[in-house]
């Protein structure tokens, strides 16, 4: 598995991975598939904000997964907290792409000086919860039946990872 920063030419692959998750998983709480234009706008906005989009490629160079993070909440008091997402195509699941992407996002978030990463995971996705626990995340809450998809109420599991040991926020950020 090879990881690299996403480039503009990756947007169709990112769209395919995202829409596959919309169609088949409870991970993205919408039934609305994105268009190439909307995914390109997302890509451009993330890049303009200096936020990472990392892709995983298989041995043939095909993009099989991606990960990114962005603001957890828009208010300035949350500026050092990011929420991340990782998605992998079905044929690449269980082969290490998800863990590699998550570990790289953690590394980038630390390098960029963020304090906390948040994971918001469908309550039935025990595999994702276990992966996050292996990477040091802790379950900090469960919001019962706050979402719906495929005719089911969905619980949201919130997990966090402290990225540093600062006891006070920095004055200059």
Automatic annotation (TrEMBL):
Protein name: Phosphinothricin acetyltransferase
Species name: Roseibium suaedae
Keyword Metal-binding among record annotations: no
PROSITE patterns in UniProt: GNAT (PS51186)
Family matches, as InterPro entries: Acyl_CoA_acyltransferase (IPR016181), GNAT_dom (IPR000182)
Keywords carried by this UniProt record: Acyltransferase, Transferase
Domain N-acetyltransferase, first and last residues per copy: 1-164
GO molecular-function term, one example from the UniProt record: acyltransferase activity, transferring groups other than amino-acyl groups
